[in-house]
């Protein structure tokens, strides 16, 4: 059936972090919203999963204290329990036995400089080179748009590149340093170390990713009188100057405006149905993607790491997280392998070998792996990222791939959702 549009009613297509942030912003402004999500679980590429009756996430995520939009939304949605939902840790990079860095409680950027000068495992020449380079990065001059991170860090000592700058690039941009955008990498460093000291905090979720933001945001949207449609994939889009009609497998409905908040790999199929959006669809269809692999390993519940997380080297995983300390899942560790394009068949064994260099947990009781094959777009130099406003006046975009300073992070997603809704409200 077709519903005629006689008032403002916005459809948000996609129930990830961008779509839920957009729907919440509109609903709180008094605009009726219908949120469509193809899956039965909200959260998109950062969502809760269940494996063997064990509640997990499709990937182990970490936030920075600089990701203010995301943290503000979480605190609003968890007004009483926000401290229980998030765990703020002062920045410490532990890479036993080769390297450790801890930033003391000084004003930014002095805390970074003090941390670099006090880092263990570096010569004084390395420390001074790192401090000088950090001052340049935190300055006002932007690197050329075509520069890669490898080129950007070329003057740094090899050990610094290997244990600090390049691992940071891989974890933040999910793109190999020889391909990653130096300009976006610099934006991440400036955000973390160029503002307030707490911006460099590592922030760990203490609950599953869906419960952290998407689910409470959707619950608030529903409480305000709007609709949430799970398991409902939008497959057809038809736009006129007066309305936008969306089609699903069992229904066709017209809306005054639409925010397309799907992942970038799903955008071209919808955008190419609207003549005004065909160039946008073709541009995004040229994106390439990087996987992220997460291995969950259950050890004796009495085992725990000496810290909530450790950096790892010389293997497939870059980090190991102790979910017993963050999620109350005693003895459960999560190993994260970013840019996981060429994982060897025995990568779980190799990840365990990395762990055994820093701890001895005994044999694993079970091991499970999740590979998000298109976790993020490749954040390469000169990448064309679209604006939130599209050439069609009634269609807007939201997503971590839209124009902004950060790579494909939860902060990029939530910022885009709030800003896209804000642009729509301005038009109204």
How would you sum up this structure, described in words?
The structure is a single chain. The chain is of the alpha+beta class and 428 residues long. The chain contains 15 helices and 20 strands. The strands form six sheets. The chain has a five-stranded parallel beta sheet, with helices on one face. A five-stranded antiparallel beta sheet has the order 16-17-18-15-19. It has a three-stranded antiparallel beta sheet with strand order 5-9-6. The chain starts with 9 loop residues before the first strand and ends with a helix. The model has no long low-confidence stretch (mean pLDDT 93).
Strand content: 15-25%
What is the gyration radius calculated from CA atoms? 22 Å
Question: What is the share of helical residues?
Answer: 25-40%
Shape: globular
How widely separated are the two ends?
Answer: 27 Å
Q: How would a crystallographer describe the biggest sheet?
A: 5 strands, parallel
Determine the structural class based on helices, strands and strand pairing.
Answer: alpha+beta
Number of helical segments? 15
Stretches where pLDDT is under 50 for at least 5 consecutive residues are none
**Strand neighbour order, sheet with most strands:** 10-2-1-14-20
The average pLDDT is: 93
Q: Using DSSP, what is the number of strands?
A: 20
């Amino acid at each position: 059936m077709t519903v005629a549009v006689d008032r403002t009613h916005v459809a948000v297509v996609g129930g990830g972090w961008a779509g839920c942030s957009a729907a919440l912003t509109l609903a709180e402004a008094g605009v009726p919203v219908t949120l469509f999500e193809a899956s039965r679980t909200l959260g998109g590429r950062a969502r809760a999963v269940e494996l063997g009756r064990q509640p997990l996430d499709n990937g182990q995520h970490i936030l920075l204290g600089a990701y203010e939009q995301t943290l503000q939304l979480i605190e609003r949605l968890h007004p009483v329990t926000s401290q229980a939902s998030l765990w703020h840790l002062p920045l410490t990079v532990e890479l036993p036995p080769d390297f450790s860095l801890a930033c003391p409680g000084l004003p930014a950027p002095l805390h970074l400089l003090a941390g670099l000068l006090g880092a263990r495992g570096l010569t004084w020449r390395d420390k001074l080179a790192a401090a000088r380079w950090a001052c340049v990065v935190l300055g006002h001059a932007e690197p050329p748009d075509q520069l890669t991170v490898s080129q950007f860090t070329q003057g740094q000592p090899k050990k610094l590149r290997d244990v600090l700058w390049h691992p940071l690039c891989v974890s933040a941009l999910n793109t190999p340093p020889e391909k990653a955008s130096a300009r976006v990498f610099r934006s991440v460093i400036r955000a973390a170390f160029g503002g307030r000291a707490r911006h460099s905090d590592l922030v760990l979720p203490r609950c599953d990713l869906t419960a952290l933001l998407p689910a409470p945001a959707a619950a608030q949207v529903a409480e305000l009188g709007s609709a949430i449609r799970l398991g409902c994939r939008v497959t057809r889009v038809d736009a006129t100057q007066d309305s936008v009609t969306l089609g699903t497998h069992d229904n066709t409905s017209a809306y005054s405006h639409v925010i397309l908040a799907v992942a970038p790999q799903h955008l071209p199929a919808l955008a190419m149905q609207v003549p005004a959006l065909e160039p946008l669809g073709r541009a995004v269809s040229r994106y390439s993607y990087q996987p992220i692999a997460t291995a969950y390993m259950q050890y004796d519940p009495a085992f725990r790491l000496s810290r909530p997380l450790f950096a790892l080297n010389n293997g497939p995983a870059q980090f190991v997280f102790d979910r017993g300390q963050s999620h109350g899942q005693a003895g459960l560790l999560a190993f994260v392998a970013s840019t996981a394009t060429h994982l060897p068949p025995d990568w779980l064994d190799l990840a365990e070998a990395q762990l055994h260099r820093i701890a001895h947990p005994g044999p694993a009781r079970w091991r499970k792996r999740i590979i998000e094959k298109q976790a993020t777009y490749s954040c390469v130099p000169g990448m064309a990222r679209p604006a939130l406003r599209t050439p069609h006046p009634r269609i807007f975009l939201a997503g971590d791939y839209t124009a902004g300073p950060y790579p494909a992070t939860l902060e990029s997603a939530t910022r885009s959702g709030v800003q896209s809704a804000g642009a729509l409200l301005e038009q109204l």
